[in-house]
Amino acid sequence: MNQAPRILSIAGSDSSGGAGIQADIKTITLLGGYAMTAITAVTAQSTMGVTAVETMPAEMVASQIDACIGDIGVDAVKIGMLGSAEIAHVVAERLEGLGVPIVFDPVMVSTAGSVLADEATVAAFERLMHVACLTTPNVDELAALGGDAALAALGVAYIAKGGDAPGDTVVDRLILPGHEPQVWTAPRIDTRHTHGTGCTLSSAIATFLGQGAPLAEAIEDARDFVRAALLAAPGFGKGHGPMGHHAVR
Q: Domain Pyridoxamine kinase/Phosphomethylpyrimidine kinase spans what residues (predicted)?
């Protein structure tokens, strides 16, 4: 049998297809995984921003998770946009003790600047960071979580993404409790087509972990996938356009 790693994405739906569940499905599939989903919210979204959000009931999110894990099983999980503090706690309850790699992308604001998590939801993120084997904040998300000092005090593993920082070089830092930081650098790709980069990176890491790769190797390969997708962007949209997942081989 050709057994693909079973990857569950718990995230919001992006109607424009560039981020969220849609980006996760594309990434997981192209990297050889079997994609399953638990949708936390439905958004009306374009490359210009989010115009409407409908959050799912927490019980419905839990039922989706139960349906996937109870029948098909799971080898790794990616958590993205959650939509409410209640959903965040339900997700944590379902995943605690699951025993598979879990990657948490603490989505707070969309690429176009729309707020996707209120204060109560962000406050619930600490529980999920302890459940996850890796949290993937960007510059603003790391600051909102209290910065390096706060995450160090929590004793959680995270990669501080540098794509939103100024400069011609992108610097990503992997912080594991009790270890020296591991750093990756790369020339910045000058493009406006960056919609869904965080979703793509986290779901790619989860897929590689589900295939059995060590954490650092999974991050390195996921970064390569994101960069290839940025270079292959089809040019759609008037704002922060989608990447070219489809063209990466």
A: 14-243
